Amino acid sequence: MVSDVHGNARDLARAGEGADALVCLGDLVLFLDYADHTRGIFPELFGAENAGRIVALRTARRFEEARAFGARLWAGIDREAAVERAVRGQYAELFAAFPTPTYATYGNVDIPALWPEYARPGTTVLDGQTAEIGGLTFGFVGGGLRSPMRTPYEIGDEEYAAKIEALGEVDVLCTHIPPDVPELLYDTVPRRFERGSRALLDAIRRTRPRYALFGHVHQPLARRMRIGSTECVNVGHFASTGKPWALEW
Length: 249
Prior knowledge:
By secondary structure, this protein is α/β, with parallel strands linked by helices. It is built from ten helices and 13 strands. The protein has a domain at 9-28 and 99-241: Metallo-dependent phosphatases (Purple Acid Phosphatase, chain A, domain 2, 4-Layer Sandwich), CATH 3.60.21.10.
């Protein structure tokens, strides 16, 4: 089980060793590395110094200033085309690293429209859908909710809730974002709360899956907790650790 891969194809190629299947909870793309300002699409285009400036503004929650600064850098550049070229390069490498079988859903920084071009036989992409793995029913919901970051795959609360509702009762509930619980949403490094889903929290309380698994928050205040009988686990920031989280039953 991995999440928040953010360009780490080297470790991804080994992540499924010894497992019946690999489950990926999204965020394959590396646009901007908050720890290493030389890595990602943004510094490749504009350099590490400008990447550091954007990180500083976002960390200070000065989102409007960050957008204005970014707009000046992008002036005269076809942003959509430049980003798509870079994302395609990353996807070609990352999808080639997936073992067989892999079950994957999108993160908030992913571009779902491109995935069908790169998902090979043996990789199953699910969003608002279920799959049986090892005798258990897994439900998958990808993407994130709308936020000041304005990442590519953010959707409205009602649309997200409808995808959660479509799953019904499952044994393992797999999402990119956590349920709306403060301890699971607070990132201790940038010192801010990420967005979580109230609909997801309600579904956990109502349907009581064995596990609720997610990522998105890279350095959470709490990596796991119980909500009723459900074990809720942040499976980790794979980009930095290179280590998958193992689900055994």
